[in-house]
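hey can u run this one w/ zinc ion bound, need the structure tokens asap thx
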Amino acid sequence: MTCRQPLTPVLRQLTRTTSFELGRQSSRSQASSLARTAAKASAASGSRRCFSSSQPRPLKATASVRQAQSKDDFTSTKYPEIKRDERFASLTPDHVAYFRRLLGGNGSALIDGVTGEAADDLAPFNSDWMRKYRGHCQLVLKPSSTEEVSKILKYCNDNLLAVVPQGGNTGLVGGSVPVFDEIVLSLGRMNQILEFDEVSGTLVAGAGVILEVADQYLAERGYIFPLDLGAKGSCQLGGNLATNAGGLRLLRYGSLHGTVLGVEAVLPDGTVVDDLSRLRKNNTGYDLKQLFIGAEGTIGVITKVSIQCPQRPAAQNVALFGLASYENCQRAFREAKSQLSEILSAFELMDEGSQALVHQVTGSKRPLESPYPFYCLIETSGSNVDHDSEKLQNFLESVMEQGIVADGTLAQDETQLRSLWSWREGITEALGHLGGVYKYDVSIPLSQMYQLVEDTRARVAEAGLLGDGEEHPVRAVVGYGHMGDSNLHLNISTRRFDARVEQVLEPFIYEWIAERQGSISAEHGLGLAKKKYIGYSRNPTMVGLMKQIKRLYDPKGIMNPYKYI
Ligand code: FAD
Ligand code: MLT
Ligand code: ZN
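ok here u go:
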């Protein structure tokens, strides 16, 4: 199966959903009408409400992407303290000739800026999704088989050429693009779905398969990919594993450390590690595949993936609530877990700042009549429509009666379901449209989670950096995230990247998190952005063990240098 050309933008037009406001009717009658809507919605949905769209969608280029780039944008200029490792060789025409012979005459398998002019073609491989990091890569290689990956890596290892594996290049920590002149190894041509077992739900696929393509393939067979995220139209399975992506339904389907059954990977010396097991249980020695999950391309290249996929839920419902306080969001989560238990598949948090930015960028009509300080998006996924709607009705009634939720809207069909999701999924892209973003993806105990946003906002304001006019680099400090996983996304939206902002934010945020025993990276990884801050979340013994693993697998250090640890 090859990937099709994606077309549809991520931010979809919001169609109006049914909304109820407390105060207009008694909470009891309101709860009942909302509950009736839930029942109607479930009935109308029939037996299936699938969430994947018909085509994979690439993320739209951000406003900053379209801006002309200057030499100041290079990572090496912005961070002069990072020095090129002089052990690495520089690319020569002889190296390029070797790769050209290896990958065949097919011009599309190689972008060569060493022996010719290819600046425009190289540009997208050199810049990350946020336009925060930019490298000087002169050669992109696009192998189509494990054997080619193996030969490329062996040659690079023998000749001390540094390599950056790249999937969909949607990573948010600067891990997927080179810093200097590293070769980009792009996995996009390894995009075959190789096997699917319709009884067990085991999928085996090439690392370059786009996540949404895999999910569509599964949808046609009654299954679902156990990971979903806003970048699904562009990111690839190999990249998902390499970052141990979390996404929107980790609450339900768990981490990739649990769902991935097997991995095929190539080590820097060309050794093919065939651990492409299809078994759920296999206690024969160390579980080495786990090392590649979350390794961010620092110990080898993932070439194939075997993953356990659950049955696609027959019934899905989505509701979006407005809440007056973060305290109420916590109460709503507690109630959702206790009342919706096994059908709860997502519990997401958005603050008003994040929703105002989505509105500013899309111009879409907002789902609720008035703004609220906080919003929670709840999704249920189950196998029995009647059972699910009854549970949801009871839940809605209860949170309204208790005054936890101030306003709510429930999707009545799939279009509305997607529309509600777009207010959550679209935040990242909206932020990208508005300029530079400093992103912090953190795990903190739920009770303290939103305090970080408030403290950061106060600090940036005190420094005189936050405000409406052009003279203020910071437009807004917003928070959203996977509340069900205690994972907050703190984002500082700027009019332009400004070193003063970074100095106010770091290490302040990392210290704040360390004091509360949180993690400085819940799901995006370390990449370049967090390499030097790992000590805030991991003790010296752990970091030491990680460095030993890196040295064992990649003794010459050619894999994704300058990043991770
Ligand atoms: P890339 O960005 O290309 O690479 C990421 C890292 O993996 C790099 O270090 C790269 O070297 C390495 N790598 C890539 N492919 C391979 C391979 N085959 N073998 C070895 N190493 C490899 N992340 C989440 O966790 N949850 C979210 O909800 C989420 N939502 C997002 C929404 C948007 C709009 C965007 C832009 C990003 C989001 N992300 C999220 C971040 C990102 O999409 C994920 O990290 C994704 O898994 C990266 O996949 P990719 O194919 O784009 O990898
Ligand atoms: C998300 O949950 O939307 C993603 O992790 C991306 C982001 O943090 O913006
Ligand atoms: Zn996330």
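The domain at 10-47+317-410 is CATH 3.30.70.2190 (Alpha-Beta Plaits). anyway lmk if its weird
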